[in-house]
Design brief:
Low-confidence stretches: none
Number of domains: 1
Strand content: 5-15%
Length: about 220
């Protein structure tokens, strides 16, 4: 039984790291490695747009002084806090930034943090159950962690990130801002490679552009 417990713990650790590597890297960067300063910004335009188009009253907007481009949302509709990287905040114009902040606010309005947690918890539980029922050795437990984490990421990508993109694209004032934002993200981060498709939550810039053009055609 001791080795099954060890295998289960290893499975849990690997599964959680793979599923949440991007978020973990961002927050760990505050503690170890290159130190990125954080600061709060009282951006009344962002708060106004988010309130008007989503109903959320942001409690805080935190800037990570990192030149990479990304945004995140923490908390729930009753405690909404937004995180933006300095690289994104300074590089995007208002039309481009509107897509980002509505996407992140959409996560909060639609309770996506809770949904992602429940998806991960369900798949995590299935994995631990499988290890103990079938008495899987360590190597198979590691393989199971990789396979189930990829499945989890795809569920989150198409069941949560895709919905957040639809939410924001259907609410932005200028759809051209969505398109130019994707061009900037593509130049900064790229979008090709099987590893990105398998291990990143985000929808590709090309797919977002298609979504924006589809809405354009409706008008």
């Amino acid at each position: 039984m001791t080795w099954l417990l060890f295998n289960s713990l290893v499975f849990i650790l690997i599964f959680l790291i793979i599923c949440n590597w991007f978020q973990l890297l961002r927050f760990l960067s505050i503690i170890i490695g290159p130190k990125y300063r954080t600061s709060s910004v009282d951006d009344k335009w962002i708060k106004s747009i988010v309130k008007k188009k989503t109903g959320l009253s942001l409690l805080d907007i935190t800037i990570f002084h990192d030149q990479k481009m990304y945004g995140m949302m923490v908390g729930f509709p009753f405690w909404p806090k937004m995180i933006l990287s300095e690289g994104l905040y300074k590089s995007f114009n208002k039309d481009e930034l509107e897509w980002v902040i509505l996407h992140e606010a959409g996560h909060c309005v639609l309770w996506h943090n809770l949904q992602a947690f429940l998806i991960e918890l369900l798949i995590l539980g299935l994995g631990v159950y499988g290890i103990n029922v079938f008495r899987l050795p360590l190597i198979l437990s590691l393989l199971l962690a990789i396979i189930l984490s990829m499945i989890c990421i795809q569920l989150i990508r198409w069941g949560i990130e895709y919905i957040a993109d639809l939410y924001s694209i259907n609410r932005v004032t200028n759809l051209k801002g969505v398109i130019t934002a994707q061009d900037k993200l593509r130049k900064a981060n790229g979008e090709k490679g099987i590893l990105i498709l398998l291990f990143r939550w985000n929808i590709s810039p090309t797919k977002r552009i298609e979504m924006a053009k589809q809405r354009m055609r409706k008008f």
